[in-house]
Design brief:
Elements lengths: L1 H17 L7 E4 L11 E7 L5 E8 L7 E8 L5 E8 L6 E12 L2 E10 L4 E9 L5 E9 L1 H7 L4 H9 L28 E2 L10 E5 L5 E8 L5 E9 L4 E9 L6 E8 L6 E7 L14 E7 L4 E6 L4 E3 L3 E5 L2 E10 L7 E8 L5 E8 L2 H8 L10 E8 L5 E13 L4 E14 L5 E9 L1 E3 L9 E5 L2 E8 L4 E3 L3 E4 L8 E7 L5 E7 L14 E3 L2 E8 L2 E8 L1
Parallel strand pairs: 27-32
Antiparallel strand pairs: 1-37, 2-3, 3-4, 4-5, 6-7, 7-8, 8-9, 10-25, 11-12, 12-13, 13-14, 15-16, 16-17, 17-18, 19-21, 20-21, 21-22, 22-23, 24-25, 25-26, 26-27, 26-28, 29-30, 30-33, 31-32, 33-34, 35-36, 36-37
Length: 549
């Protein structure tokens, strides 16, 4: 018995030592600088054709007239500023309610995609405002929405979209999402007390846009408001801003019972995939499960095809489309029906050409996950989970990162509290089976800006890395658990958390607020090769940070 105990201890120590390897990283900082406008967000970060770092930051101007613009900057490998340009988008008095819907960097050209209403033409115009490599500006009309379109399909509340965008810095996530996972009025999650998804208000737009992962094209979706039916226009463009094809989709069903969730453009830019959720009359007689179904629809230049996704007895708020090799995978957190708590991750894979179902799995969270979350296995679940990142390893395992996110409205104060709590990370093998699932305890909130809380992540050598801001001390919980706590906007420490290929994790502090001029916006990180780029700010002082693994 003593020999067995000694053997277990030695094995445990060996495992601990293997993963106590140092987290290797390098840090580069730009010089501290100030802009005319106090706040800005990185909305694009790319390498140009010469290997320089291109960064585009959005800002909102001051004054009586709403003015939105972009700082465009080029840096060399030593973070020395080579070029800069203030890209302000101006409009005539007849061009109203201009709303930014996306940004691209294709063929060495930056394009800000927007839509506005032209009073003279009485049409909605989608326009690309492009900036060449030598900073020359050009404009191109991409498509129009006519009065006849509005009459037949429904209205577009562009004024509300413009007003909402003017209240906060524009940020582009390239997710292709139409709606939050929590704005389904028939969901068991719909009636949660004074809590709403962080992304609910920012995704309440009529428009979505996403660039495909090969950067050969992009797609724009326009969702028309119509209480009696659902209507959607899809516009597919190549990497030269040329319209390849457009598709129109309509459904004679109450718009609250047919919900567009997200769109994705195939790697070859020849097909668009739309994921929708519908509540149909014929589903009301189901003995088990919910009165809903998901529809995966493939659009090409010539035709369309529909695949129904059945969810059995489980309830799934939303599904997310991703591509890998010749498969389409749809992922979503599920609960038992009529329970407002997530129990695990669902997985559906389809043939990319004919949409035939290849595989489906419902993976409950692991016992280790429940210990991470609650200290010991309990009959509890999670709420408010938001997808953050999805990565594929070289052997086609899938790593998914999510977070507990919600907004709390503080009564009688007219204040909004942004909450970003625990990090959820899962690994699925190429067959959709759960390898491991972990929960990293975290409790963070802000009232005016959620950029400094939450996290950014990257996968390297099959290890999963998270970059987060924390307070002075890491809180110790029961059962050998820890919790990363609250940060202050002007005082926070930057940490890296690593989860190795076996699901074990460690962490290291890489910047202390005592030795850095500014705190960094960890939720707005951009991946360049094996590096993440962040912007930091304290008052008017700003600084760029590059962390390379």
């Amino acid at each position: 018995m003593k020999k067995l105990l000694l053997f277990v201890i030695l094995i445990s120590l060996k495992s601990s030592l293997v993963f106590s390897q140092k987290i290797n990283y390098t840090i580069q900082k730009s010089k501290e600088f100030e802009d005319e406008y106090k706040k800005s967000n990185i909305v694009l970060s790319e390498k140009d054709s010469e290997g320089n770092l291109l960064i585009v930051r959005s800002y909102n101007g001051n004054g009586l007239k709403y003015n939105q613009g972009f700082y465009v900057e080029k840096y060399n490998n030593d973070f020395k500023l080579l070029k800069e340009f203030d890209f302000s988008i101006d409009h005539s008095n007849t061009e109203k309610y201009n709303t930014i819907i996306g940004i691209t960097y294709l063929n060495s050209i930056i394009s800000i995609i927007e839509i506005f209403y032209d009073l003279n033409r009485k049409e909605y115009i989608c326009q690309a405002n492009s900036l060449s490599n030598d900073f020359k500006i050009s404009k191109k009309e991409l498509f129009i929405i006519t009065r006849e379109d509005i009459k037949n399909k429904g209205y577009i509340d562009l004024e509300e979209n413009c007003f909402n965008q003017s209240k906060e810095l524009w940020n582009y996530n390239n997710l292709g999402e139409f709606s939050s996972v929590y704005n389904d009025p028939y969901s068991p999650f719909a009636n949660f007390n004074q809590k709403h998804s962080i992304t609910e208000h920012s995704l309440s737009s009529n428009f979505t846009m996403t660039v495909n992962n090969t950067k050969t094209g992009f797609v724009i979706g326009v969702d028309f408001n119509n209480k009696k039916s659902e209507n959607l226009n899809l516009y597919v463009f190549d990497n030269n801003l040329n319209l390849k094809f457009n598709s129109e989709f309509g459904k004679e069903i109450n718009d609250k019972k047919y919900i567009f969730q997200n769109i994705q453009l195939s790697p070859d830019a020849k097909s668009v995939y739309l994921l929708s959720k519908s509540y149909l009359k014929e589903l009301k007689d189901k003995e088990k499960g919910g009165e809903y179904q998901f529809e995966l629809i493939k659009f090409t230049e010539k035709n369309s095809k529909v695949q129904i996704i059945k969810t059995n007895e489980q309830y799934i708020n939303s599904l997310k489309i991703i591509f890998n090799q010749d498969k389409i995978t749809c992922l979503g957190f599920y609960s038992n029906y009529d329970e407002d708590k997530f129990q695990g991750i669902s997985y559906f894979s389809f043939d990319q050409n004919n949409l035939d179902l290849l595989n489906s799995k419902f993976n409950p969270f692991s016992e280790q996950f429940m210990i991470d979350k609650y200290g010991k296995k309990k009959d509890k679940g999670l709420k408010f989970l938001i997808f953050k990142n999805i990565f594929f390893t070289p052997n086609n395992d899938l790593i998914l990162n999510a977070e507990e996110q919600y907004i709390t409205y503080i009564a009688n104060t007219n204040r909004t509290l942004f909450n970003c709590d625990d990090i959820i990370s899962l690994k699925l093998n190429k067959n959709g089976e759960l390898v491991w699932s972990r929960n990293i305890n975290k409790s963070q909130s802000f009232t005016d800006d959620d950029s400094y809380i939450s996290y950014s992540s990257i996968v390297k050598d099959e290890s999963n890395y998270f970059f987060i801001n924390t307070g002075e001390e890491i809180k110790k919980l029961s059962n050998d658990r820890i919790e990363f706590g609250q940060v202050r906007k002007n005082k926070s420490n930057l940490n890296i958390i690593r989860i190795n290929p076996d699901g074990d994790f460690d962490f290291v502090e890489i910047l202390d607020d005592e030795n850095t001029a500014v705190p960094f916006k960890v939720s707005k990180g951009f991946i360049i090769d094996e590096s993440l780029i962040f912007i930091g700010q304290k008052g008017k002082v700003k600084q760029l940070l590059k962390v390379t693994l």
